[in-house]
Structure to design on (347 residues):
């Protein structure tokens, strides 16, 4: 076989059977026969939709397509075929879809595109589909995707916005996913991921102490690295809201908004002639607005950008002294650096 290496864009489909270990433990021969039939049907559907099965390992299938439309149609056909089985122990499959750059080596595919598709599959509901934002942008109008928010995926250096399609859309009854998901598998997987995250965080802190430095990645703080590790398990170290809805439900948001508004109104309203109070109010308003923008865009830099704007404008409107204005504008300039750095990478 000729050794060929090339990069290209491809639509990637990853499918994995839910609760495979439990099924094998209960009936290994019967499960093996069902998995063989599943692979055969998926391969047929893949070929019929212009794709190619790259690999099958255990209970999973990895396929590639030239078109994301065809990949979505194939994923839909797979789930609809499985939904026709009305047995209680029907096969349930999670499917991940991504469109991105891959490295082709002979008949194999490698690269971030493949890794992202594999991580998306793990986020899909049983009997449903999880897709990346690039997939949603291309085919989001074809089936009812739901925005599942930004996710930190293992070994991926940026957060990915995920969109999911529920099992009900493909014909599964509403309780199908809950009845078929192996609770033991899910619990043990979550525990394993949590334990791995704890070990990584501990090793990271030991490394910083030993090397007496704060960061191994330029522009990345120790806190952000720990947040990224914890984010893979669906947790956040600081407990800070990560969605717009979560921010709006936070007492801190409304406290900053109300207190900031009152302090800003104090100066033009004649309550006080001291410009310090409206400047402080502008900072509080920036904290509230920045938290919403940060949650909406997934970028830490939005907080510092809001702070930069608030300090710059409040210094001009509320302060008269040259020295006091200079101090506030120096602080605004200091906040601009983290704002720019935070815009370059997802939170």
């Amino acid at each position: 076989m000729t050794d060929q290496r090339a990069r290209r864009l491809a639509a990637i489909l990853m499918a994995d059977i839910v609760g495979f270990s439990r099924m094998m433990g209960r009936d290994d021969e019967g499960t093996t026969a069902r998995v063989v039939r599943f692979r055969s049907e998926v391969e047929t559907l893949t070929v019929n939709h212009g794709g190619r099965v790259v690999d099958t390992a255990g209970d999973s299938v990895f396929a590639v397509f030239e078109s994301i439309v065809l990949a979505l149609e194939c994923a839909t056909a797979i789930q609809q075929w499985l939904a026709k089985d009305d047995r209680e122990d029907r096969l349930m499959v999670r499917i991940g879809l991504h469109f991105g750059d891959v490295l082709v080596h002979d008949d194999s595919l490698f690269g971030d595109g493949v890794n992202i598709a594999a991580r998306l599959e793990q986020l899909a509901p049983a009997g449903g589909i999880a897709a990346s934002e690039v997939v949603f942008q291309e085919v989001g109008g074809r089936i009812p995707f739901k925005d599942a928010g930004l996710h930190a995926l293992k070994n991926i250096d940026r957060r990915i916005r995920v969109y999911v399609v529920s099992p009900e859309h493909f014909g599964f009854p509403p309780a199908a996913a809950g009845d078929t998901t192996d609770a033991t598998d899910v619990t043990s997987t979550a525990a394993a991921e949590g334990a791995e995250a704890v070990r990584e965080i501990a090793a990271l802190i030991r490394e910083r102490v030993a090397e007496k430095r704060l960061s191994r990645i330029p522009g990345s703080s120790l806190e952000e690295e720990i947040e990224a590790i914890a984010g893979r398990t669906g947790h956040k170290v600081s407990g800070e809201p990560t969605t717009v809805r979560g921010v709006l439900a936070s007492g801190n948001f409304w406290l900053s908004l109300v207190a900031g508004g009152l302090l800003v109104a104090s100066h033009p309203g004649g309550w006080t002639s001291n410009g310090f109070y409206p400047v402080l109010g502008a900072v509080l308003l920036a904290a509230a607005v920045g938290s919403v923008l940060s949650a909406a865009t997934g970028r830490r830099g939005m907080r510092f950008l809001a702070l930069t704007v608030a300090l710059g404008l409040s210094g001009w409107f509320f302060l008269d002294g040259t020295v006091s204005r200079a101090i506030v504008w120096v602080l605004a300039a200091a906040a601009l650096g983290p704002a720019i750095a935070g815009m370059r990478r997802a939170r």
Summary: Residues 182-239 form one domain. The chain has three domains: 5-181, 182-239, 241-343.
